[in-house]
Structure formats: C-alpha cells, structure tokens
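Suppose you are handed only these lines of text.
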Amino acid sequence: MILTKLALHNFGIYGGKHEIDLTVQKDKPIILVGALNGSGKTTLLESIQFALFGKNAKFIPKTKTAYLDFLKDSINRKNLDTSASVAVTFETKKGSRISSYEVVRTWSLNSKKIQLDTVQVFKDGELDEELSDRWPELSENFFPSQLSDLFFFDGERIETLAQQDRCSELIRTGLNSLLGLDLVSDLSRTLVTLERKIKLDNSGRNEKEIYDQLKKKSDELQIKRQELSKEIEESYSERELLQANLEVANDSLIREGGDLFKNRDDLKAKQDFLNREISRIRNELVDLASTVLPLTLLEENIKTIEELSLSSLSSTQREAVSDAIYNFSLCVLKEVKQREFTDVQIKVLQNIHSSYLEISKNESKNPEIHCSRESLYKYRTAINSLQSSGMTSLVELTNIKNQLELIEKQISAIPAEGKVANFIEQVSTFESKLNQLNIRIEALALNSNNIDKEIAANELKIEETINAISSSNAEELLFKNMKEQLSRGKQTLATFEEKIRNKHVSNLEKVIKECFDSLLRKKGFLQSISISKRDYQMTINIVGGETVPSSKLSAGERQLLAVAVLWALAKLSGRQLPTVIDTPLGRLDSKHRKFFVENYFPQAGHQVILLSTDEEIVGNYYKSLKNSVSKEYIVEYNEDEQSSFVSSGYFN
Ligand SMILES: Nc1ncnc2c1ncn2[C@@H]1O[C@H](COP(=O)(O)OP(=O)(O)OP(=O)(O)O)[C@@H](O)[C@H]1O
Ligand SMILES: [Mg+2]
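From them, the structure of the protein bound to magnesium ion can be written out as follows.
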C-alpha cells in the first residue's frame, strides 16, 4: 500500500482546501515535510490516521466524549460554520493490477453539535457502497489498525516507548498481531456479544433491565479504566520529562560545584576527623621514640657488637688466660734451660713464646663489651618489632595526609551559597515533584487494579444474568456448537502457538539486533538481544559475555532500542505500509542523528514521510538524505489567513 494524496479541508490549522501529492519514485522512498513548531506537522500525521481509522485511530482516546470532542476541535476555528474533511488516497498492487482507493471523511458543526460524520470510499474513482458501509472492518485488509503504532509515530513519543514496560507491551502486541492471535480473541468476543444479543431479544423485561443496568455499569467502568490508563500514560510521560529536567538541573549543579556545597558539612567533619587522626598517629610516634626505637639508627653497630660478644672473650677472661699461658710458657723455658736442649731447639721455643706475646698484644686491641649477649639479643628483637609498628604508623600517616589534601582541595572549591542556591532549589523542586508523581502513579495503578477487579466482578454478574435466560433449544445448540468449535480452534492454535511464538521471538531478537546495530554509535558493543518469552522483557548481551537489562542503557540508547523494536516489528509484519514519522530526530544527539538519517530513514519502508522541524533534517543530515528524497514540502503559517499552507520546497 502506498499513499498517493492527502487532501484536507478546514482541518485543524489548515483552513480552506489543501492537497499534497505523496507519490514516490522507486529507490527514493522519502517525502520530506518541513514545518516549524506549531505549523501543523502533528496535524498532518493525525489527518492520515484519522482518514484511515476514524474513531479507532490510536491517538483518539477511547473515552465516551473523546471522539466527538476531537471532531469539534479539529474543525478549523476560522471556518466553524462550514464542513471539514480529510481524504486520503492510496494504491494497492495485486499481481500487476494497481487499484486506487480514496477514503473521504466529512463532518460539520451545527448549532454547536457535531453533524454525524460520514465516510465514503471510492475505488478507482467510483464510490464503492460496500467499502463505505463496512470500512471500519474492511480497512483492516488494507492497513491493520493493530499495526498503526509501528508505522505512524512521533519521534518525541519514542521516549515513552523506551520505558521497559512499554517496550515489552509493544513487543507483546506486535507479536500477537504477527501471529494473528488477536483475531481469535476478537472472534470469541464477537460470539459472546452475539449470544447475549439473541438471548436478550427473547428475554423478559425484568431480565433486560437487570442486564441493561449491569451493561451500563460495565461501560462506565470501561470508560473509567480508559481514562485512568490515559492518566497513567500521561503521568509516565510527565515523569520522563521531570527525570530529564532533574538530570539537567543536577548536571548544572555539579558543574557549579553544588555537590561539594551540599556535602560541605560532611567535608568539614571529615577534615576535622583526619586532623585528629594525624595528631593521634604523631603522638603514637613520639611514644615510640621514647623507647629503644631510636637505637634503630645504630642497627649496624649493634649487630657488630653482638657478633663481637659472640666471637671474643671478655678482657678479664683474656687477661687470666694470657697470664696463665705466659707463666706456663716461662716455666717451660726455665725447665728447658736446665735440660740438655740444643740451642736451635731453645731458639724455636723462644720464638713460639714471643709470637704468643705478639698475638696476645693484638687481641687486646678489641673493645671490651660490657653487655650480656642475652640483653643485646633482646634489644635487637624489640627494635625490630617497634620498627615495624613505627613503619605502619608512618604509612597510615601518609595515607591520611593524602586524604586530607584531597578534602582540603574540595573544601577550597566549595562555591559560595549564592552561586548555587538557585540550582539547589531547582533540583529539590524537581525531586519533590518526582516523588509526588511517583506516589500519584502508584495510587493510579492501585485504582486501575481495583477497577479491573470491579470489571471482572461485573462481567461475572452479566454472565450469570445471561446464563439464567433460557433460550430456544435450537439457539442453545447453535451456540454450544459454535463455542465448541471455537474452543477446539483455540486448543489447536495453542498447540502451535508456542512453537510459532518462539520462532517469531527468535526472529525478532535477530532483526532487532540488526536494526539496533545500524543505529548505534558503539559498534561491536552488542552481541545479541534476548527477549523473555514470559514477559517480553529485553536483555542486552554485550560483547565479552556481560548481560544487562534494557533499563540499564542510557536514555538515548533506550530510544534507539525502541525504534529498533518498531523497525524490526514493521519488517517482520511483512506488510508494505507507509511509514510516517513526526519530529523524527526528537532528542537524539548529533552522532545518533547521523545513523538515523543514513541507516534508518532510507530503509524504514517503501514510503517514508518525515515531518521535520528546522532543527532536525537540515545541513549535512539533509544532504545525506537528499538522494532518497522524492518530494519536499514546506508548511508555513500565514498570519493574515490564520492558516498553514503546504508548498513545494524545504527550509532554505
Ligand atoms: N481547530 C483549529 N483551528 C485552528 N488552529 C488549530 C486548530 N486546532 C489546533 N490548531 C493549532 O494548530 C497548531 C498545532 O499544530 P501541530 O500540533 O500540528 O503543530 P506541530 O507542527 O506538530 O508543532 P510541534 O513542532 O510543536 O509539535 C496549534 O498552534 C494549534 O493552536
Ligand atoms: Mg507536533
């Protein structure tokens, strides 16, 4: 399917009649529409969705009055008394046969009330009654409404899809529509409605009244539930925005030294503590110095003394030994002289005597040690242990001094209160708003849970009321048969479902990875993506074996992942449908914008309509996209006419 024309008449900011040719050439799938803020980009996106899906368009809330409100609000304010219309023309190709369809929706406001809107469908220029009457149902053959989120989206809303729960929900619905599972549940819902209708047509007044009351309650509860869902959705978006603002405020605060300012009391307390530690260790060192520790300086000398004390005799011992030997030697000489020894022999003995004297004289040069070996040994070991505790204290002292230096640097960088007060206030305002919002979200979730329970209880009562109504045997039999068939069908489907689902999940994992790879700046970062078959949560397997949940990616990376999921589901749907992206580059940084422009847009589909501001697809991005662009439009607001106009061209 390819869109060929969009015609607007008094729709939103587009007063009067406007036509846009949307045909694209082969290999040039892009139509580039430039418009400043508030000029009518989102209006264009919504007009296409509205033309195709009417009240089922995803952007129209499902509350009671939302559709009528939308019709009222979207008639151009300057032309409230005339009718409004949107018409979209598209072509389909079956074999070599190309057919053209035009869907025209018209409505008007009559004395502040909406005149019923009409839808007319023309096939190859001729009004087709059947298509017109059954368009809500037959449109599904051209563009399944389930898939509209995959092909029509707002770049800024991608942020919401980037939240883990939303992303899982997108995968779940995407997979269901790929599997066609929703058709089966739709079928069983239709059967229940049909059964109720036939039974009620034949029931008494009392039963009808009870049923009507219960049905009324059920409708009210559904509306409440939808309103709550909308509120929850809005709160999520608000939370995203608050978180982003908080991040910005925190960054500015840190840049201005605000984190130091916030921690100033802690820093000062730490400084005092470290100073106290330093004096404690210094005192310990002084105490150590008053023991034998200073002898460490004489360690070598003590060792020598100890060795000496081990190797030599004390001087008194030496004197006694020397005297004894001397006397003995004199006696020997005296004795020798009285005997008949030769002169040579006597000379030898005298020489021995005098060399002894020589030795004894040398030995007396050694110092005398007045200390026992035991006490010397004791000193030496005491010194060793004192030395090691002294070393520990010194290391500790150096560490603490380093810490103190760092803290003192931080203290000197603490900014004056006036400089950061503004940022601190901003941060605390965002924090408290965020807290309040979280509490509100919790309360809303609880509320919605309670409504779900009420809905279930009410449904049960409806079921009981209907069951109590007796109907003809033939009808009973018919419903019994239909239910049996349906439940058999469901069972058969359930048998295959798991296998098909697993196959789709693993295909999806592969395709999401390919898409994510081509959008991501950090090449070679991703090994694979896993999707849990239980809750569809995604896990990123990083090169090197680490596994992270998608919530651990940066906010920008999560957005890319959400786009990769949309892109992958659109690819796997196997449908050739037009893709319309509003504000396509949203909040992406320059690097990722480049990947979007180069790798995503030209391949996002066979027809890609980009609705860009002058801050997005311009400059180099525009140049690199140019070869894939078939048509360029610029939407400009005209103050005099109070309307926007579409003309050929783009931002200069
Ligand atoms: N019924 C109406 N008649 C006239 N103007 C309308 C009507 N409804 C909405 N508008 C105006 O249309 C503008 C909104 O257009 P739209 O949201 O399409 O702009 P946009 O280009 O998407 O802006 P942004 O870039 O900020 O998203 C607003 O200025 C709004 O006041
Ligand atoms: Mg917009």
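What can we learn from it? Residues 417-468 form the longest helix (52 residues). DSSP finds 20 helices and 15 strands in the chain.
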